[in-house]
């Protein structure tokens, strides 16, 4: 039987190629990294939390991080596994979510490429937090 994490990763991966749109939640018009998490959770039968307002760059993300536990995520320090939710900080005041497909690959809504993509998870990615579905 497939784990919730593996199902979450598979659901997110199905959105590869969907256009990027800030605060987007519709695969037809576009999604952002939070939208990708929202849709993948919904697709595996979880109820995504209601989101506060947010922007592309923001200094404080405590309100968003507080939604992880109610959505079924628990912080983990274990090796990256399929379905882990990764918080990255690509630049000052910039945060980004990605979903691990396995220990070396992620799926995420890439603002620069303007679509959801699969990429390698590298040592240069600044992963600042990791959560696993429980």
Automatic annotation (TrEMBL):
<keyword id="KW-0378">Hydrolase</keyword>
<dbReference type="GO" id="GO:0008234">
    <property type="term" value="F:cysteine-type peptidase activity"/>
</dbReference>
<dbReference type="InterPro" id="IPR000064">
    <property type="entry name" value="NLP_P60_dom"/>
</dbReference>
<dbReference type="InterPro" id="IPR038765">
    <property type="entry name" value="Papain-like_cys_pep_sf"/>
</dbReference>
<feature type="domain" description="NlpC/P60">
    <location>
        <begin position="2"/>
        <end position="134"/>
    </location>
</feature>
<keyword id="KW-0788">Thiol protease</keyword>
<dbReference type="GO" id="GO:0006508">
    <property type="term" value="P:proteolysis"/>
</dbReference>
<protein>
    <recommendedName>
        <fullName>NlpC/P60 domain-containing protein</fullName>
    </recommendedName>
</protein>
<comment type="similarity">
    <text>Belongs to the peptidase C40 family.</text>
</comment>
<keyword id="KW-0645">Protease</keyword>
<dbReference type="Pfam" id="PF00877">
    <property type="entry name" value="NLPC_P60"/>
</dbReference>
């Amino acid at each position: 039987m497939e784990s919730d994490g593996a199902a979450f990763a598979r659901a997110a991966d199905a959105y590869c190629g969907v256009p990027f749109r800030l605060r987007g939640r519709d695969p037809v018009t576009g999604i952002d990294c939070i939208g990708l998490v929202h849709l993948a959770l919904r697709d595996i039968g979880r109820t995504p939390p209601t989101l506060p307002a947010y922007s592309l760059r923001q200094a404080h993300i405590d309100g968003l991080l507080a939604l992880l536990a109610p959505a079924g995520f628990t912080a983990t320090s274990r090796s990256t596994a399929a379905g882990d939710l990764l918080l990255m900080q690509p630049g000052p005041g910039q945060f980004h979510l990605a979903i691990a497909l396995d220990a070396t690959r992620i799926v995420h809504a890439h603002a620069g490429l303007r679509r959801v993509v699969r990429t390698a998870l590298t040592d240069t990615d600044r992963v600042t937090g990791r959560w696993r579905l429980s």
